[in-house]
Amino acid sequence: MNPFKQAKTRDIAEAAGVSTATVSRVFSRHPYVSEEIRQKVLEIARKLHYAPTITSSRYLIGVMMRSIDEGILFNPYHNQLLHHVSQELFRRGFNIRIFGENQLPYLHKHSFAGVILTDSTVAEEIRESGIPVLLVNRIIPGMHSIVTDHREGIALAVRHLLENGHRRIGLLRLTDNWGSNERESGFRSALKQMGVEPDSSLIIQYKEADDPVRIVQQLWTFRPTAVIAEGETVGVPLNYAFYRLGIKVPEELSVITFEDPMNSQYMTPPQTTVFQNFAVLGQAVAETIADLCASEFRWPKVPECRVLNCSQLIERKSVRNIRSGVLADKGKS
């Protein structure tokens, strides 16, 4: 087929060996289509780069964020989450629209099958509209949500540092953030489980707009031997702060951040990180919002919170064993 020619439903029907009516039923998520036929039609549609014209709210999922600006495209968290959610929703025949809180009237003006909320603060207002809503990495009582087990994720980092002799472990965490609160709880709990009392002077809250040099300088005053910095956007500014302050990693300070696929492995030294598996998270989000949109009768009577254990530690070159004095991590340089 000519790659510049727009595929039509009859092209898909011919390739799949079904009627155009069946193709239409697949994209309208009609219940009387077998799963085998549905997957076959969707696979051919992907190969032909076909996208259905949105004429019904049954196709459309809204993704609302607190704000939309140029920086959102470079935010590792939102970038990865949106990529995997959208890919899975497209595979299921949905389309998405991304908008910010200041565009809330857009939500009421258009019909949406459902809405995914990442960091929005208007969840209750949207719920009152009667649209199926799914929260991601945030919990509000009475609403459906999918969250990563942040406590276990940061516990991986804590245990790795403890195994390498560290006891004075700092935590740099974002302010006013559900996930950050969970990570601090997991941080404190993991230390206590290993017989180490958390030192509150080594736990520092920051905002993304704060000067990283000032934040690291504040932490360095209390002389930790290691630090965990949570948030996928912190690795680069943290690396800059260490350079400005002359702090050698990992000789003077061992460091674990959260995985930024575009940057973490290219730092000096390459950073050991906690990786939140966005492919797993994205698939779960897409599956759940699709189910919530399918029929109001399929909604659980009690809203569910699904917790995913999808974090892993990626060892590189930023952690030192302070007992032996040698590099602890086994990762590639």
UniProtKB/TrEMBL annotation:
PROSITE patterns: HTH_LACI_2 (PS50932)
GO MF annotation, one: transcription cis-regulatory region binding
UniProt keyword terms in alphabetical order: DNA-binding, Repressor, Transcription, Transcription regulation
SUPFAM superfamilies reported for this sequence: lambda repressor-like DNA-binding domains, Periplasmic binding protein-like I
Key word Lipid metabolism present: no
Keyword Cell inner membrane among record annotations: no
Tree of life domain: Bacteria
Protein name according to UniProt: LacI family transcriptional regulator
Organism: Victivallis vadensis
